[in-house]
Amino acid sequence: xxxxxxxxxxxxxxxxxxxxxxxxxxxxxxxxxxxxxxxxxxxxxxxxxxxxxxxxxxxxxxxxxxxxxxxxxxxxxxxxxxxxxxxxxxxxxxxxxxxxxxxxxxxxxxxxx
Amino acid sequence: xxxxxxxxxxxxxxxxxxxxxxxxxxxxxxxxxxxxxxxxxxxxxxxxxxxxxxxxxxxxxxxxxxxxxxxxxxxxxxxxxxxxxxxxxxxxxxxxxxxxxxxxxxxxxxx
Lengths: 113, 111
Prior knowledge:
The structure holds two protein chains of two kinds. Chain A is mostly beta strands. Chain A contains no helices and eleven strands. Chain A is globular. Chain B is built from no helices and eleven strands. Chain B is globular, with a radius of gyration of 13 Å. Chains A and B meet through strand 5 and strand 10 of A and strand 4, strand 5, strand 9 and strand 10 of B.
């Protein structure tokens, strides 16, 4: 069974640009969550999508947005990039039912110049 | 108060010893508890999950949960240098609420 796939793996952008990251969940999983990981802050929750609806949201500014498609694939968009947005962005999928654990993709490392 | 707290470490143990990693959480209604291992430069990997009070064993790993004390721990028996990593504790409240992660404990197993 294929795992969670994130693309691209690495990305370099400059301040003010925007970026779109993609996540394909494990087959059959309907929940996709996005996290930002930095050395100082650890894993910070961005948002969760389940069946194309945002079910939970973290405390990030509106520059961070996401969506989920009918095949459960999800995208995250960050607009007007800032230097502080440099981080590892992780996607995790689960069935979304009950207490099932999340499984992470390899992440997208975003660097802002 | 942080929702999920872990000692950042590093926790150093000799090869072959038992490593004990601890986690406390603030939401008394939390129902699901997970341990992830993250090697440097890699993504978190699920290693254990526990839902009920008591112990759950899987190979060299044992998760322990005490809901009354709001405490969950991970024991690694016969620690190996390959166990050297950061261990993340994650807690899910009831229903469909978001998972909250601790900042992780760095474990170093000394050969």
